[in-house]
């Protein structure tokens, strides 16, 4: 008999409003031993499911003294990390949906010897239906 898979539940702390999160964090901070800012920020982010900016703002409003240099590094690293995602998507959009070169308009594949085969540019120019299928925007 197969065991049923347990559904992964989100932590209850992830759904809290800011007001409730701060109230909960005040009690949580009493259980955490003071020390490394990096561990504190990481733990808060993981526990409450918030961004670095929100974490820093919340901890500072709770009276936790964070090293200014560390805060600046964290915030700039998050900006660069989140800024990189859209660029990757844009690069993926720019790539054509199929391969082509100077001789072939559409490369369907390669022979075992490595030679390409497919539809040539001459065939595309002579057949308007084929051209509209391959290049619908033109």
User: What's the total count of β strands?
Assistant: 2
In terms of DSSP E residues, the strand content is 5-15%
- Name the shape in a single word: elongated
Largest sheet: 2 strands, antiparallel
Estimated helix fraction:
55-70%
Put simply, the count of helices is 6
Low-confidence stretches: none
Q: What is the H/E order?
A: HHHHEEHH
| CA radius of gyration | 27 Å
How far is it from the N-terminal to the C-terminal residue, by CA? 58 Å
Mind explaining what this structure looks like?
The protein has 138 residues and is mainly alpha-helical. The chain folds into 2 domains: 12-91, no CATH class; 104-134, no CATH class. It has helices at 18-31, 37-48, 52-61, 68-94, 121-126, 128-134; strands spanning 104-110, 116-120. Strands 1-2 form a two-stranded antiparallel sheet. Strand 1 and strand 2 (116-120) form a beta hairpin. It is elongated. The protein starts with 17 loop residues before the first helix and ends with a helix.
In short:
This protein is mainly alpha-helical and 138 residues long.
Present the secondary structure layout.
Layout: H1 18-31, H2 37-48, H3 52-61, H4 68-94, E1 104-110, E2 116-120, H5 121-126, H6 128-134
Antiparallel strand pairs: 1-2
What tags apply to this protein structure?
138 residues, mainly alpha, 2 domains, 9% strand
């Amino acid at each position: 008999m197969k065991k049923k898979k347990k559904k992964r539940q989100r932590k209850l702390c992830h759904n809290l409003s800011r007001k409730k999160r701060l109230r909960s964090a005040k009690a949580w901070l009493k259980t955490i031993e003071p020390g490394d800012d990096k561990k504190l920020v990481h733990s808060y982010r993981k526990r409450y499911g918030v961004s670095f900016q929100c974490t820093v703002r919340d901890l500072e409003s709770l009276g936790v003294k964070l090293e200014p240099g560390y805060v600046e590094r964290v915030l700039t690293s998050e900006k660069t990390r989140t800024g990189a995602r859209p660029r990757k998507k844009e690069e993926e959009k720019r790539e054509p949906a199929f391969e082509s070169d100077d001789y072939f308009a559409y490369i369907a594949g390669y022979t075992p010897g490595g030679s390409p085969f497919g539809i040539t540019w001459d065939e595309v120019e002579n057949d308007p239906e084929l051209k509209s299928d391959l290049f619908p925007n033109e």
